[in-house]
Design a protein that fits this description.
The chain has 26 helices and 5 strands. By secondary structure, it is mainly alpha-helical. A 5-stranded mixed β-sheet has the order 2-1-3-5-4, sandwiched between helices. α9 runs antiparallel to α10 (171-188), α16 packs parallel to α18 (326-341) and α21 runs antiparallel to α25 (526-537). The longest helix is centred in the C-terminal third of the chain and has 27 residues, at 388-414.
């Protein structure tokens, strides 16, 4: 199936127009958690301290899992430009880089169109792109080394850099980078690649040891806060007894043995062809294992499934689909689709995937290649399905944040007479707005240096904390559940000591921030900010988006 010479440019023009519209819609979106990492860069420039709290007495805590973006946050702080604006520019550069890289691929136009459509036609892509988190950069850094291996049969210089960036993007990126290096050695069999892999591994190990020494913990704080003893299907299988997990374990070992036997016998070209499936197996393992044993609190628009499975579909299409490569691309896409379906069942999409897979397996050569491309598209669609109601809430999110969390941070920061520590149950833009003038204690644990280390220092609750901002909901109006076991006594003691309500910052009709201040502490500006938050945020998402359409909150600097 060939595209007419005028059809492809027209389709690319349509993709560009849709992508521009989606970018305008979701460009304002920034997740509150992004400001946790950005506070480190601001504190380093303002006070010369790399820590969540810049005061000399503050205990060091590593509240981020992405050293790459956290390090980049130093640049806007040095230049004096809004940090949100800086990362919007970074996001736009990532999008342009992806489209340019796809346009330069020497693959059939229909594959280039599909790869562009995976991004430009997907609202979820733009949600993750502009969120301020590392989701899209992590996905593309995951795809890059495996794509280069698949295309060139070795890790090029760019592949080496991408693997290093991947290892510095998220903790699971270390495992993916290690697999990329190992597979690169198996395919390329070059001594130079071995030395480069050892050098990269040594540099990464040195970084981890240095940060463990600096922060006093081997893992970031998020590991201790988001790990759980409830492993989902893992615990369920173990609880079912040996009759369930023993056969499953035996099957996994058998598949591993067969794979190892094939690996020893395969030549370099067959190993190169198998690269998409290697990535798919790693992605499925991370999704079924690590992600299911973690508390995925920020899983908006199915973020974790998307960031680990989207790269599989990309790598499956970076080489021309030929009779030799189609089986491997098909197997990778099918595994990605099955992994997505195992956690959220979509009957219609499952039926389409089954039909397409049937066409690949039993169709002729004319049908097999487009069917393999279609299966990759189905895999992307499966991890991108997001209800319109959730997308509308995402489009309204940053405007709500401006009138709630950000307004509260600005009101406290503008009060020159306010001193002391603020304890907050939703760390993000509010602590960022407070800057280096105030220490902030995180009630939810991400930036809590005492998490898992015992009780809080008594002085923190008795003297230091002057304001408590608790996250309230209808079933938990005092915000006692929105805390960790370590910080719960602090909130209870604030109520016992007669902290005075100073305002309720409404975020939606079912979520708010209850502001409590120590008796005698002035809180000018909070009541006005609370009234404004109620007026703006007690409305439906569609109304918020309609009234604030075209506004760019990221142009402002706290």
């Amino acid at each position: 199936m060939r595209l007419h010479r005028y059809t492809a440019p027209a389709l690319f023009a349509v993709l560009t127009a849709v992508g521009a519209a989606l970018a305008l819609c979701f460009a304002p979106y920034t997740v509150d958690d992004a400001f946790i990492s950005w506070r480190y860069g601001a504190n380093l420039v303002d006070s010369g301290v790399w820590n969540w709290n810049p005061s000399a007495s503050a205990v060091r805590v590593e509240a981020y899992t992405n050293p790459l973006y956290t390090g980049l946050s130093v640049i806007p702080a040095l230049l004096g430009i809004p940090v949100e604006l800086f990362f919007k520019v970074v996001s736009a550069a990532i999008l342009v880089g992806y489209v340019v890289a796809v346009a330069r691929l020497d693959v059939p136009r229909r594959q280039r169109l599909a790869l562009c459509a995976f991004a430009l036609l997907s609202p979820v892509f733009f949600v993750h792109l502009f969120s301020g988190l590392e989701t899209v950069s992590f996905a593309l850094l995951t795809a890059a080394p495996f794509a280069l291996l698949s295309r060139h049969g070795r890790l090029t210089r760019w592949g080496q850099l991408a693997a290093l960036g991947l290892a510095l993007s998220r903790p699971e990126g270390i495992a993916l980078a290690a697999v990329a290096h190992a597979w690169g050695l198996a395919v390329g069999r070059r001594r130079r690649d071995l030395w480069l892999a050892l050098a990269a591994g040594g540099a990464l190990a040195a970084y981890w040891l240095l940060r463990a020494w600096y922060f006093g913990r081997f893992f970031p704080n998020t590991f201790y806060q988001k790990s759980t003893g409830h492993g989902g299907w893992i615990d369920s299988a173990l609880a079912a007894g040996p009759l369930v997990w023993a056969p499953a374990g035996a099957a996994v070992l058998a598949v591993a043995a067969l794979g190892g036997r094939w690996l020893l016998r395969a030549d370099r070209e067959r190993l190169r062809d198998a690269t998409p499936l290697v990535l798919a197996v790693c992605a499925a393992g991370i999704h079924l294992g690590l992600y299911q044993a973690s508390v995925l609190a920020m899983n908006y628009a199915d973020r974790f499934s998307w960031q680990i499975l989207f790269p599989v579909a990309v790598v499956a299409l970076v080489r021309p689909l030929t009779p030799r490569t189609v089986p491997w691309s098909t197997a990778a896409s099918a595994l990605a689709a099955a992994t997505a379906l195992s956690f959220e069942w979509h009957p219609a999409l499952a039926a389409v995937a089954a039909l397409v897979l049937t066409a690949v397996l039993w169709g002729g050569d004319r049908l097999r290649t487009p069917a393999a491309l279609g299966l990759a598209a189905v895999a992307v669609i499966l991890v991108s399905v997001t209800p319109p109601r959730e997308l509308t809430a995402i489009a309204a999110y940053r405007y709500r944040l401006e009138y709630a969390h950000e307004a509260l941070g600005r009101a406290v920061a503008d009060d020159k007479g306010f001193r002391g520590t603020v304890a907050i149950g939703d760390a993000g833009i509010m602590p960022f707005c407070l800057g280096a003038r105030h220490d902030v204690y995180d009630l939810r644990g991400l930036a809590d240096p005492y998490l898992g280390r015992g009780l809080l220092p008594k002085r923190l609750a008795d003297r230091d904390v002057q304001m408590v901002v608790a996250v309230g909901r209808p079933y938990d109006p005092k915000g006692l559940r929105a805390t960790t076991p370590t910080s719960l006594p602090l909130v209870k003691r604030a109520y016992a000591q007669g902290f005075v309500p100073a305002g309720r910052m409404q975020f939606t009709d079912t979520a708010w921030q209850s502001v409590l201040v120590r008796p005698g502490v002035p809180a000018p500006g909070l009541k006005r900010a609370a009234r404004l938050a109620r007026r703006e945020n007690l409305r439906p998402d569609a109304a918020v988006v309609r009234d604030h359409w075209g506004e760019l909150p990221f142009l402002k600097q706290c």
